[in-house]
Amino acid sequence: MEEETHLAVRRFLATHLGPSIEVMPTDIMAADGKTIVQEWNAVFKDGNVLYLCEAKHNMTDKQVNKLPARIRKFKEFQANAQPEFRNVTKYVGVLCGTLFPEDIRKIAHLGFICVYPSGYCYDVKKPEDFIIER
């Protein structure tokens, strides 16, 4: 599931932003370069925008509500993280789920990109008022 959602998000971003999308490390390291302080299922970067992906087989409102705190926590570690993360100033949360009920997607669409099964592939939907730009 993680691999499929990773590819779906990557294709979606490439379609909207072009080939400049960078695939980033999923482990955020502490200043010592050895300790993992945070893990993501996928991370993409375009310029100063970072797309942080959280994948769960069963997406619930509890996981949706945890994502803002995880992004805030990332910001705390950012200054001491790997150099490629330091020039990021914008953060976009991406929620991926195999079982992602419609009522939970409606909540999540208030601020996150959502990835969920649709037919034989994963569909990627952004909030209606969200503009993807460089």
Provide the fold topology.
Layout: H1 2-17, E1 22-23, E2 27-29, E3 36-39, E4 42-46, E5 49-58, H2 61-78, E6 90-99, H3 102-108, E7 113-118, E8 121-125
Parallel strand pairs: 5-6, 6-7
Antiparallel strand pairs: 1-4, 2-3, 4-5, 7-8
Explain what you see.
It contains 3 helices and 8 strands. The protein is of the alpha/beta class and 134 residues long.
* Top CATH class: Alpha Beta
What is the makeup of the main sheet? 6 strands, mixed
List how many beta strands DSSP finds.
8
Indicate the low-confidence ranges by residue numbers: none
| Overall geometry | globular
For the record, the CATH architecture stands as 3-Layer(aba) Sandwich
In the sheet with the most strands, the strands line up as: 1-4-5-6-7-8
Element string (H = helix, E = strand): HEEEEEHEHEE
CATH topology: Trna Endonuclease, Chain: A, domain 1
| Radius of gyration using CA atoms only | 14 Å
The percent of residues in helical segments reads: 25-40%
| Total number of helices | 3
Amino- and carboxy-terminal Cα gap: 28 Å
Count of discrete domains: 1
Please state the structural category.
alpha/beta
Strand content bin: 25-35%
